[in-house]
Design a protein that fits this description.
By secondary structure, the chain is an alpha+beta fold. It has one domain: Sandwich (Jelly Rolls), CATH 2.60.120.650. The protein is built from 6 helices and 12 strands. The protein has helices at residues 22-30, 44-48, 52-59, 81-88, 110-117, 181-187, and strands spanning 15-16, 35-37, 63-68, 76-80, 102-105, 132-139, 153-159, 162-167, 199-203, 208-211, 216-221, 225-232. The strands form 2 sheets. The protein has a 9-stranded mixed beta sheet with strand order 1-2-10-7-12-6-5-3-4. Strands 9-8-11 form a 3-stranded antiparallel beta sheet, with no helix packed on it. Strand 1, helix 1 (22-30) and strand 2 (35-37) form a beta-alpha-beta unit. The chain is globular. The two termini are 33 Å apart. Residues 99-233 form the JmjC domain.
Amino acid sequence: LAGTVPEEPRCTVERADASLTYSLFLQRFAFSRPVILGGVTDNSAFRALCTREKLLAAFGPFPVRLSTANTYSYRKVDVPFQEYVEHLLKPQDPARLGSDTLYFFGDNNFTEWGPLFQHYVPPPFRIPGTSPAYSFGIAGSGSGVPFHWHGPGFSEVIFGRKRWFLYPPDQTPHFHPNETTLAWLQHTYPTLPPAQRPLECTLHPGEVLYFPDRWWHATLNLDTSVFISTFLG
């Protein structure tokens, strides 16, 4: 479902296409800055398995673990996947705190979801010394996770549009850990001088964002979105 959050046409994250070589990826992006990769994966088969109907048929009765959209909260809630899709997958209320916003992303049971992930074609690049782990998510319009950081990774949009905000490790963003990304965008973002604004871009289906180690990032789903990340640990 399309949301009411407008898309920002400006994109300040560098883009690269399928002509980007592995050596150039390592040299220009892997350890220094994010990049949006276009045309490096073909996940049409995976996308066909990720429609609402197919996912409900395959995983409806299975429990999924939801997390709160709060940088420092680790509260988890287990609900049947069908209950999440039919009752909790709603547009974000701008007045709702992150600790009261439940988000399906990150805690995937590989016994149950593993067969689906076998159909996913990951980005072709790796960081030496790391191994990949998948994290699958579905979230409503206006939802997202507030600023946080961890190791490097890729994130691909399967359905919908997803807006990203990124800061380098030495530039801590100004945010409240229990404020949703939507509230931050409405209240804090407009007050930032141009020099203090994050790198940002909106990803569309088939596009992959790479973010280096320890880069701050926050996300905002402009539509009901399906997405998958490949974390390099």
